Amino acid sequence: MNEYILLRHRTIPNIKDLKEYQAIGGFEAFKKSVTSMTPSEVTDIVKASGLRGRGGAGFPTGLKWSFMDNKNWPHYVIANADESEPGTFKDREIMENNPFQFLEGVAISSFAVGANAAYIYLRGEFWQIAHFLDDKIAELEQMGILGDKLFGTDYSLHIYTHLGAGAYICGEETALLESLEGKRGQPRLRPPFPPSYGLYGKPTVVNNVETLTNVPMILEHGANWYKSIGTEDSAGVKIFSLSGRVKKPGNYELPFGTTFRELIFEHGGGIIDDRAIKAIMPAGASSSLIVADDKALDTPMDYASVRTLGADLGSASVIVIDDSVSIDWVINKTIHFFKHESCGKCTPCREGNYWMQHLIERIHAGVGEQHEVELLYNVAKNIQGKCFCALGEFSTMAVTTGIERFPQDFEDKAKSSIDG
Amino acid sequence: MNKLEEKYKIEIKHVLSKYPNEHKRSAVMPLLYLAQRDGGFVTEEAMEDIAEILELSTTEVASIVGFYTLFHAHSAGKYRIQICNDLSCALRGADSFLEELCKELGIKPGETTPDGLVTIEPVMCLAACHRAPVFQVQTGEGLLYYENQTVESALELIESWREKEKKGSEETV
Ligand SMILES: Cc1cc2nc3c(=O)[nH]c(=O)nc-3n(C[C@H](O)[C@H](O)[C@H](O)COP(=O)(O)O)c2cc1C
Ligand code: SF4
Ligand code: FES
User: Fold this and answer.
1) In this structure, are residues B128 and B134 in contact, taking their beta carbons and an 8 Å threshold?
2) Ligand 3: does its nearest atom lie under 6 Å from the Cβ of B91?
3) 3-state class (DSSP) for residue A80
4) Shared-domain flag, residues B154 and B104
5) What are phi and psi of A206, to 5 degrees?
6) CB within 8 Å: A200 and B23
7) What residue numbers bound the domain in which A339 lies?
8) Is A210 exposed, middle or buried (0-12, 13-18, 19+ CB in 10 A)?
9) Is B145 within 8 Å of chain A by CB?
10) Over 50: is that where the pLDDT of A417 sits?
11) pLDDT class for A400, splitting at 50, 70, 90?
12) Fewer CB within a 10 Å sphere, N or C end of chain B?
């Protein structure tokens, strides 16, 4: 594939100027939707395209939109720009460089679900991006592309930015809603899901930045065009954030179904110092650890195929680990992250991560004994299936798979403590 | 009208216009950012002012300050250097970057330089994993990213702040 669908600024450097974006057809899809289509026609195209959510869960986007409760008004759209999963840095590149395509995606989805107000919830660290987007939104209002009674119709839309303040859990959609309502970011019980009970108790669609940025191109080129890219189960392109022990870390926009090998060795330039690759985390710190053997490297990166390796593709934040790194070091890092980010609402996650941190610190320092590795494993297993939200589950993935799939790294540690 | 309202009249009005009238509580985080502008942290008094504006209890406002890591209830260095030493960055040397920078400044992570200028803190992933070592600098004014850093480039940056502060204080004398 030689043309970008999302990271178009790489070939069209001025795309962040409104004039340039419009010159290449920008906002035509939004205008066409508002002036000549019904909301359900727009939703149907997105449904037919096979677009699935890029925030991690891979839920079909058009289907989500069609769940909006039409007996309860007003409706809201929220762009999830909290991007805080370790290893993920794609939404940021989109917003910084191709802001209008993203905003057009927000606008089209708002029309499709009948929302007159949309919020972009950005992690607080994206302070500069929020100001940048504010300017772009103001420009669109001036041009009559956003605001009241658009293109001579009765449809009005206002888009607002809202900054979080440093809490990974606010990426979870119901914690995000709480946070946007001015409360601590702690998840809500689901169901009800946001399309029936969302912001201020009103029907709300929450979509990831990358998901929304696909939408204008789908409307412009059609559902069949989009579906023809990628695999049967995972349509279209994905931005893979590649990081860790590779020569060329960065974002790579590739069709779903590209193999790990192609991403890591062709695009990423291979492993630093040409060492041996050891493990892959395909979904950031929340990921299971995959043993990077030939079978894994030749596995296509789509939702279904990655599952055959005992892992999830998630947000496709591929972290590469080489043979210079011990897995107990890796899970020491992931546990510290989740211990820090646990919102404290439920006991298994709050206390479980506290205990996992205590144990991994001893093991990593070489003072833990073999039975403490087993204890760590058991604590992780006992957290699973008992947490109020997915963060608790995420916190155990690297721990259990790390101990199961790389036992040697833990035996060595325990031995060294016995040897003194 | 309380002190915060007086000082940021236009800004507060703009912030409140983003949310439905009956849900002005949504403005609590934007208002905390405003309150933090001057000293880099939120004073007790500012929390009371925000509570009054949004018709909340001060405890509710304080609980927000406590929950979110970018709000601070206590003063620190004028510039908070927050270095990511999370997984991806640590795989590219962020831990030793943090350690060496602290050593050069003669402080430990979490501490402030004796002149009160710089605080160094480790933080979780900043969504800049491909450009490690990376840190953000938080001041009351806002947040800026510094990517692909070295200990030397970080020290130069700190030196430039020292110069700026010196000039600033000479001008006010
Ligand atoms: C702990 C946690 C953190 C999450 N962080 C993010 C995030 O930063 N960005 C995001 O888009 N989705 C995140 N999600 C997923 C959201 O809950 C939600 O599924 C997503 O925003 C839906 O959008 P999509 O359908 O377009 O993927 C997170 C989920 C969990 C459980
Ligand atoms: S699993 Fe963790 S993050 Fe989720 S609600 Fe429970 S304590 Fe909070
Ligand atoms: S791990 Fe450091 S920026 Fe992501």
Assistant:
1) yes
2) no
3) strand
4) yes
5) -110, 120
6) yes
7) 327-419
8) buried
9) yes
10) yes
11) very high
12) C
Q: How far apart are the first and last CA of chain A?
A: 56
Looking at residue B168, its pLDDT comes to 80
Residues A17 and A138 in one domain: yes
As for ligand 2, residues whose beta carbon falls within 6 Å of it are A 169, 187, 342-346, 349-350, 387-389, 391-392
CA nearest A200: which of A216, A215, A219, A182?
A: A182
- Nearest residue of chain B to residue A160 (CA atoms): B18
Q: In A, residues 114-153, which contact B (CB 8 Å cutoff)?
A: 123-128
Domain limit, last residue, from A190, A205, A227: A227
A86 at interface of B, judged by CB pairs closer than 8 A: yes
Residue A1 lies in a domain: no
Cβ of A337 and B87 within 8 Å? yes
- Which of A198, A227, A256 is at the close of a domain? A227
ipTM surpasses cut 0.90: yes
Q: Tell me which DSSP letter residue A236 carries.
A: S
Rg (CA), chain A: 22
- pTM here? 0.97
Give the DSSP per-residue string, B78-98.
Answer: SEEEEEE-SHHHHTTTHHHHH
Task: Tell me if A91 and B127 make a contact (CB, 8 A cut-off).
Answer: yes
Which of A38, A9, A21 has the alpha carbon at shortest distance from A143?
A21
The reply to whether B11 and B93 lie within a common domain is: no
pLDDT tens for each residue of B111-128: 999 999 999 999 999 999
Atom of ligand 1 nearest to the CA of A88: 8
**Cα of A289 to ligand 2 centre, how many Å?**
22
Q: Of the residues B42, B67, B92, which one is the last residue of a structural domain?
A: B67
Residues A108 and A205 in one domain: yes
Residue B9 CB neighbours (<10 A): 11
Distance A308 CA to ligand 3 centre (A): 28
Closest atom of ligand 1 to CA, residue A391: 1
Instruction: Give the whole-number percent of chain A exceeding pLDDT 70.
Output: 98
Is residue A136 within 8 A of residue A308, CB to CB? The reply is: no
Q: Is the pLDDT of residue A1 over 70?
A: no
Q: Which amino acid is at A418?
A: I
Average pLDDT over residues A98-118: 98
Q: What is the dihedral of CA A259, A2, B126, A76, to 10 degrees?
A: -100
Kindly tell me if the per-residue pLDDT of A293 is higher than 60: yes
Q: Cα(A120)–Cα(A383) distance, rounded to whole angstroms? A: 32
Ligand 2 center to B168 CA (angstroms): 46
